[in-house]
Amino acid sequence: MTNNFGEIYKEADRAGMEALNKCLPNPMIVEQHVDQLDDSSPVAKSWFVEDGVCGFAWINVKPGNSPFANFLKANDLGRKDSYYGGVTIWVTAGNQSMQKKEAYAEAFAEVLNQNGIKAYAASRLD
What we know:
The protein is α+β, with helices and mostly antiparallel strands and 126 residues long. The protein has 3 helices and 6 strands. A hairpin with a 6-residue loop joins strand 4 and strand 5. The chain is elongated and about 60 Å long. The two termini are 36 Å apart.
């Protein structure tokens, strides 16, 4: 276990990218119906979305005044989170795929927790 915050961050990012690259999202088909208010009307257009549902994911570090949280803020790697508290690191990799972003966030948070840093992965649909 290392106490070098830069190295911990790099290790967490590597683990996140490895998880993201291994992730195989559930693809989806998006349909536009002739009558957009009637799902039983004929399908006018459809699109195959290989990366699955769109969404966001992030890692929340608590408390927001911990040494690691202060490191994140000082290096523009995270920002104070007025909604959840603590400091949040947004997942920017993975295009719009929520599942890929979730895989990254979970692996990243796991590395932080292994290094004694309280962190949680979270996500939401777009």
